[in-house]
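Ops channel
N.P.: pipeline sanity check, posting one input/output pair.
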């Protein structure tokens, strides 16, 4: 047997009410009622709809038969009426009081337009208004009603509620009858706004009649300007309507104020509250002002939020010509608001204040003001509009959805972000509309999680149904949380975008320059070739592509950011090169636009360094790391080395293997250079990272070469690569070669000759592969520190090294071996080599006086012969006074003399050696600190010069932008004279040189 529960009816009285309607019989649904009951079951609340029908039947009496017949025949009527009855108790009450009004829901007519709304409401208050064939109604301030007082309010209220019923019925109907046309959010919000405008015009007509009397002319021109959601044509079902009043002449402001007050009273009693609190000085200010009065206030006293509110200003009633003049006059002030000091911070602070005023227990349910709510979307859109709309008129829309779409088209917001934010905004507005319709109350509160009945009703009113896995309530809750979280994420991404503050800091006039003015501004910013800079700008943002639009938004900021760097011209050229190289990289410009830290850091790097842009065009992925300090500066060098070796091991072709190694090295070099220049990585971290990645490249190249030379057979020898020089000390700079020794040992079953031939082939292939021409910084493998130098064999066996060092080693070779450490190949063989050379580099009994004199003699000859002609010995970082060579030779002399007695001195690192020497008492701690300071200063300066010039250079620049760039790279502030750095360098290295002369030369 059928039960009403089959149709979603749970009220015990349902069967009795269905029988009263004639839809139910003893055997179940009455003949022909199946379609009606099916429609009833799709209503948001079938029980509520059924009760409404029974009330309407009782109110109609004998007229029920006509409605009952129409419901069976008219799909539109059935969908509209059952949807309204199941959604809104307030509109049900309206129909019960005026039961004949059901007829307005019949038929296939679409929603009335704005002019029909106006004509209907003006007619309700008896206004003398002509309506032309197209339905246009008069709207001037001369229109006045024939009725006034309570009668006018009554008639206006009834007519307004009827039109509101029309809108709601058309909006809700597809929920019950899916074949009916679906109204989009934009259409519904626009209709509600048009209806509100019609109500304002009608209320004004009543007010004019009350103040001026019948037949008397109104001695004042009065314009009503809509603000807020009504101004933007995005009104809710239940909302205050924000307005301001403008009047002329000034002498009749009293009359205008009485008319405005009367209009607000009539509209408030009949339709909705009219709020004029957005006027100057709020509720404490004059209700009506002249246009000059408004302008005087806005120019002198207005706060940031007032310009934000004026975004949506739109004349809607009264003297429209005066209203248009008001909007035209304030519009330039609105689009100059972002020039105000602290503008962005003010808007952000206002949003935080609004959010903080939401009670904590309601914050997660507040659709409008809470986190992830409608205000998050609106504030973000308005802030972007006010900042970027200064120059782009496409953004100057009063409607949130339209403005958001324009921001997406213009490239100010990612297309996906704009689409997602628009979708979520529409969804939240739909829920807001449904919640307000229920009782026609102004509410924005989403049902509590445990309010299953409320969630189910809202889900069904929003058109959601069970999906097989979840109930309608569960589906609604999941969708609400998804949209809520997405809105908050995108709000924080856009609203707190650091780039916004940077854009806002650029004056409006600088965003709209003629070519002549642009050249003047570029020159004032510090560009030495404004014409060249202008050509770069034109090349970057010419055309109508999205890429050009985003560049147009970015360039004003980047020009200012680059102007703060040592070389703005070079930085802009580098930016153009990088942009052109990455033109087809979809995320490049999006990253700069959305991540302000990336844009700011990139400008710093490009305006300081030639080394970085050369790598960046070939390793653009590193750009993503500029916004993540932890990744940029905190990556473990060993992890990077492991990734490099793992990736290279997948290649069988040695050339391809080395190409892969180069690629990964390129990324690591760029990462380290960026972190170094930005002051995020200290010198020990720089040296460790550069040395580790070089060692990893050697390991990868050695493995690939061994596989190639072996050609699938067992290797004929075990090979180890010993790092020497700065590689051995873990102190590589950006331009350092890799000093190495190759040592081998025959594999089981191989003789020494075969092993040497195999190992030599491998070593030569490694050197050839790594030294192949490339756009990357060079990979030079230098084996000149081997026994007999360039004339000796490239590879020796362990026994050969042992024999040579025992019989032929000179003191400089023992000195070179102080840096020897295993870096690649067979680790056990490398360890045995290191143990083999320990007695050579740490001689028992120390260094005798003759050999110490020999080292001093060699050092003096190196100083005299290798310092380039014309070089300044005071500022040459490697061979200059107190430079790298001075400090390193001093440490090495101490090691040769004392390491046999002090094991802590047996280190390959310079700074560690100095610390150990001080701890052992063989060097005064103050002298150790002076030497360490000199070494750090020279190493950092040498690295900085390489980064600035893009190639290894040991001499500090004498002056000019390169010197300024080196100083900036070393952390000196932009305002500092580069000469301060030179003075610091000279002072530090002079102190180190004094120690060298005493300790090394014995003077």
């Amino acid at each position: 047997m059928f039960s009403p529960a089959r149709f979603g009816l749970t009220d015990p009285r349902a069967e009795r009410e269905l029988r009263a309607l004639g839809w139910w019989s003893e055997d179940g649904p009455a003949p022909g009622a199946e379609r009606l009951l099916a429609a009833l079951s799709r209503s948001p609340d079938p029980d509520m709809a059924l009760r409404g029908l029974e009330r309407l039947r009782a109110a109609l009496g004998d007229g029920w038969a006509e409605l009952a017949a129409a419901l069976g025949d008219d799909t539109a009527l059935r969908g509209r009426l059952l949807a309204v009855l199941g959604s809104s108790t307030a509109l049900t009450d309206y129909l019960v009081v005026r039961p004949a009004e059901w007829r307005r829901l019949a038929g296939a007519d679409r929603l009335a337009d704005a002019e029909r709304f106006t004509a209907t409401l003006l007619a309700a208050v008896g206004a003398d208004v002509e309506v032309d064939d197209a339905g246009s109604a008069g709207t001037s301030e001369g229109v006045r009603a024939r009725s006034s007082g309570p009668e006018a309010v009554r008639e206006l209220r009834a007519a307004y509620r009827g039109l509101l019923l029309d809108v709601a019925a058309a909006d809700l109907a597809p929920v019950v009858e899916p074949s009916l046309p679906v109204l989009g959010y934009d259409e519904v919000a626009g209709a509600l706004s048009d209806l509100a405008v019609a109500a304002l015009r009608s209320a004004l007509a009543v007010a004019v009649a009350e103040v001026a009397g019948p037949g008397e002319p109104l001695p004042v021109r009065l314009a009503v300007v809509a603000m807020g959601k009504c101004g933007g044509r995005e009104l809710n079902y239940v909302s205050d309507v924000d307005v301001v009043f403008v009047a002329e002449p000034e002498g009749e402001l009293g009359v205008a104020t009485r008319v405005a007050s009367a209009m607000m009273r009539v509209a408030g009693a009949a339709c909705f509250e009219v709020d004029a609190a957005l006027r100057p000085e709020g509720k404490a200010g004059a209700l009506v002002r002249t246009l000059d009065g408004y302008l005087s206030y806005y120019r002198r006293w207005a706060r940031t939020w007032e310009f934000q509110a004026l975004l949506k200003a739109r004349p809607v009633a009264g003297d429209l010509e005066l209203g248009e003049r008001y909007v035209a006059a304030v519009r330039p002030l609105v689009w100059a608001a972002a020039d105000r000091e602290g503008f962005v911070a003010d808007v952000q602070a206002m949003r935080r204040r609004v959010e903080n005023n939401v009670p904590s227990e309601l914050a997660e349910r507040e659709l409008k003001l809470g986190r992830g709510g409608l205000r998050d979307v609106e504030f973000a859109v308005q802030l972007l509009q006010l900042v970027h709309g200064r120059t782009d008129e496409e953004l100057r829309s009063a409607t949130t959805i339209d403005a958001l779409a324009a921001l997406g088209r213009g490239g100010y917001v990612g297309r996906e972000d704009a689409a997602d934010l628009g979708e979520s905004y529409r969804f939240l507005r739909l829920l807001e509309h449904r919640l307000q319709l229920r009782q026609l109350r102004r509410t924005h509160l989403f049902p509590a999680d445990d309010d299953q009945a409320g969630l189910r009703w809202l889900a069904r009113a929003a058109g959601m149904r069970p999906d097989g896995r979840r109930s309608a309530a569960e589906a609604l809750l999941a969708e609400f949380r998804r949209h809520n979280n997405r809105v908050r994420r995108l709000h924080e991404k856009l609203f707190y975008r650091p780039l916004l503050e940077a854009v806002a800091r650029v004056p409006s006039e600088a965003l709209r320059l003629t070519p002549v003015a642009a050249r003047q501004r570029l020159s004032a910013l510090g560009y030495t070739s404004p014409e060249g800079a202008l050509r770069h700008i034109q090349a970057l943002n010419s055309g109508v592509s999205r890429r050009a639009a985003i560049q147009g938004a970015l360039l004003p900021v980047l020009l200012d950011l680059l102007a703060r760097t040592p070389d703005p011209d070079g930085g802009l050229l580098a930016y153009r090169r990088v942009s052109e190289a990455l033109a087809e990289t979809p995320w490049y410009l999006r990253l700069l636009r959305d991540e302000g830290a990336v844009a700011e850091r990139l400008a710093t790097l490009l305006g300081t360094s030639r080394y970085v842009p050369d790598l960046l065009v070939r390793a653009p992925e590193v750009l993503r790391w500029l916004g993540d300090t932890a990744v940029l500066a905190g990556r473990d060098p060993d992890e990077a080395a492991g990734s490099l070796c793992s990736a290279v091991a997948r290649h069988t072709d040695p050339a391809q293997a080395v190409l892969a190694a180069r690629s990964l090295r390129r990324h690591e070099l760029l990462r380290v250079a960026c972190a170094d220049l930005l002051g995020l990585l200290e010198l020990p971290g720089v040296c460790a990272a550069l040395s580790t990645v070089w060692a990893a490249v050697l390991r990868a190249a050695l493995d690939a070469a061994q596989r190639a030379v072996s050609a699938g057979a067992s290797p004929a020898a075990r090979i180890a690569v010993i790092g020497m020089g700065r590689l051995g000390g873990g102190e590589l700079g950006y331009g350092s070669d890799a000093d190495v020794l190759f040592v081998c040992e025959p594999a089981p079953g191989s003789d020494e000759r075969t092993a040497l031939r195999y190992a030599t082939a491998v070593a030569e292939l490694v050197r050839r592969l790594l030294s192949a021409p490339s756009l990357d910084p060079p990979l030079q493998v230098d084996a000149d520190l081997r026994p007999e130098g360039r004339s000796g064999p490239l590879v020796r066996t362990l026994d050969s090294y042992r024999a040579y060092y025992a019989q032929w080693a000179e003191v400089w070779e023992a000195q070179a071996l102080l840096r020897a450490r295993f870096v690649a190949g067979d680790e056990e063989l490398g360890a045995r080599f290191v143990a083999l050379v320990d007695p050579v580099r740490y001689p028992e009994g120390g260094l005798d006086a003759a050999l110490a004199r020999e080292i001093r003699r060699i050092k003096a000859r190196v100083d005299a012969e290798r310092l380039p002609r014309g070089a300044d010995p005071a500022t040459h970082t490697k061979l200059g006074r107190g430079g790298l060579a001075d400090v390193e030779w001093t440490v090495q002399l101490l090691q040769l003399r004392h390491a046999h007695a002090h094991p802590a001195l047996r280190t390959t690192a310079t700074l560690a050696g100095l610390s150990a020497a001080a701890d052992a008492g063989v060097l005064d701690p103050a002298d150790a600190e002076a030497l360490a300071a000199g070494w750090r200063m020279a190493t950092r300066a040498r690295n900085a010069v390489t980064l600035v010039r893009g190639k290894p250079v040991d001499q500090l620049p004498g002056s000019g932008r390169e010197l300024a760039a080196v100083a900036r790279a070393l952390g000196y502030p932009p305002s500092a004279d580069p000469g301060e750095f030179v003075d610091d360098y000279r002072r530090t290295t002079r102190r180190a040189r004094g120690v060298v002369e005493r300790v090394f030369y014995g003077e």
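N.P.: looks fine end to end. The CA atoms of residues 367 and 444 lie 5 Å apart.
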